[in-house]
Amino acid sequence: MDIFVLKKKGLSTNAISRKTGLNWRTINRYIRNPGDRKPYTTRNRTSQLEPYYPAIKNWLEEDCYTATWIYDRLKPLGYRGGYDQVRRYVRGLKDTLSRKAYVRFETEPGRQGQVDFGEFQVCDELGRTVDTVYLLL
Fold first, then answer.
1. What DSSP assignment string belongs to 19-46?
2. Do 40 and 49 form a contact (C-beta atoms < 8 A)?
3. pLDDT tens digits for range 99-110
4. Euclidean distance between the first and final Cα of the chain, in Å?
5. pTM above threshold 0.70
6. Pseudo-torsion of CA 59, 61, 66, 70, nearest 10°?
7. What pLDDT, in 10s, does the model give residues 77-94?
């Protein structure tokens, strides 16, 4: 109705387009055929990924795997869709899953000592592995 009111006021198609946010071709179509408005039909399609939703959700609850890792695991299971579809679904699912929060643990100075364990391969000048060295850092 806005299109017809604005057209009766004498506005051009481009002016109506700017005011309504509709494409000028759409406005021309409504002006030429005022009673011929067909609703757009859409059909609900299921995703190729839908049979794999439970497996993906289980993997993400297990650990925060990447979409690439999940895609690589789905291919042998028979998934024939594309990577982007997996990536979009995983991104949406990761947003809904709760993440584990880690609380920083601190004590007074001198109360407790913490170390990290490291393992290194020592090589000679020719690049051959000579020995494994274990360190406490």
1. HH---HHHHHHHHH-TT--PPPP-----
2. no
3. 666 677 778 888
4. 75
5. no
6. 20
7. 999 999 999 999 999 888
